[in-house]
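Complex 422.
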Amino acid sequence: MAGKERMLITGGNPLEGEVQVSGGKNTAVAVIPASLLCDEPCTIENLPDIEDVHALVDILKELGAKVEYEPGHLLRVDPRTAQGDTVSYRNAQRLRASYYLLGTLLGRCGRANVPTPGGCDIGSRPVDQHLKGMRAIGADAEERRGILRASSENLTGGDVFFDMVTVGATVNVMLAAVKAKGTTTIYNAAKEPHIVDLANFLNSMGARVKGAGTDIIRIRGVQSLHGTTYAVIPDQIETGTLMIAAAATCGDVTIHGCIPTHMDALTAKLLEMGVRVNDYDDAIRVRGAGPKRAINIKTQVYPGFPTDLQQPMSALLTTVKGTSIVQETIFEQRFRHLDEIRRMGAQIRVMERTAIIEGVTELYGAPLTATDLRAGAALIIAGLMARGVTEIYEPGYIDRGYEHIEDKLRSLGAEISRDLAE
Ligand code: UD1
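Predicted structure with uridine-diphosphate-N-acetylglucosamine bound:
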C-alpha cells in the first residue's frame, strides 16, 4: 500500500533572502471562468501553478472550450467551441470556486447546472446570496438536490442588495450581469483586490463595469466581449504568508512582485508587534529579529484584517510573549489549526469564535494534519518556528493555493521536504 503523503519541516532556521510572489489564486479562480464570457480567444497570464487552477482548466475543457495551458505561465482560451451548460460533480468538488460557473454559464448561454462546490471546510458556506443575486437580475435560480441551477430567457439586470459582504456572490453576479440586457447595480459589494482585478479583466474585453473596489458596483450589460491578454494581480495571501513566515523565524526576507498597499492591514499588525516592515514600489522587506509584542486581531472584510491570514498569524502569535486575542468574524470553523498547534506545546483557549493565545517560549515538532488550505499554511509557520521535526499530513490542501511553496521556502533557507510516510 502506498504511504501517506507528508511535508517534513525541521524548524529553527531564520528565513533570509529574496522571493517572488505568484499570481493571485482568488483572482485566477474568477478570471478563468470569466474567459468563457468572451466571444473571441483570450489569454490570461501570471496564473499560479496550483491545483485550483488545474481544476478550472479541466472544467473549461469539459465545457468544450479549446484550451492551451502552460502551467505557471499562461492560459489561452478559445471559448467559441464551448457548448456545455453543466459542470460534472467530479470537477465541481475539486474547488470552491467551481460555483463561479453558475454566473458565467448563466451569462453566456442562459442556463447553468453546477453541483454544490467542494473546497475548504471552514464551517457552513451558504449560497443564498448568490441565488438571490441571480434572481434579482432576471433569472430563476435554486439549489435542488445538491445542484445549483440558474436559467433565464431574458437576463434583464437589476438591483442586487446583499445582506452581508460576500466575495463569492459579488463575483458570481458580476459574471452573470456582464452580458445582461440592462444595468445591474450591486449594493454592499465586496471590495477585495480580486474584485477590482476581475472588473479590470472584464473591462479589458469591452465590458462596462464601474465602481469595483467600492461597495456599489454598476454593470451595464454589453452584447459581446472581444479578445484580450491580461495578467492577474499578485497573490495577497501568499505575500502575507511569506511576510508572517519571515517574522515568525526572526528572518529578513524581501518579497518581490507584490502590491504593498494590499497588505496594509497585515503590515500594521506586524509593526504593532515590533516587526520591521518596509514597503517599496512592488516589494516588501520584513525583518523579524528582536522581541515581539502580543496583539489582538479581528478578521474583517477588505480592507480589514483578512480571515485568510488569521490562521498563519495566529500560528505566529503562539510564540509571542503575552496574551494575544484573535477574533474570527467571517467563518465559523477557522481555528482547527490551533488544535493541531496545541500538540506542539502551544497554549491556546478557544471560545466560539475567539482564541486566547498565551505565548510560549518554544514549540516542539510534532505530527500534524492540515484541515484546509490556510490551516496548512499555519502549520508550516508553526513548523518553521519549532524545535525538531514537524510532519504535516494532507499537504494536498496547501497545493490548492500555494505555488511551489516548498521550493520558495527552501530558497530562503528553510529545511522542508515531502515524502510518503511508511
Ligand atoms: C472568499 C475567498 C476566501 C476568503 C473569503 C473571505 C475566493 C475564491 N475565496 O471566499 O479565500 O476567505 O472570501 O474573505 O475569493 N455567505 C452567506 N451566504 C452566501 C455567501 C456568503 O451567508 O450566499 C457568508 C459566508 O458564510 C461567510 C461570509 O458570507 O460567513 C463571507 O463569505 P464570502 O465572502 O462569500 O467567502 P467566499 O467567497 O467563499
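The mean pLDDT is 96.
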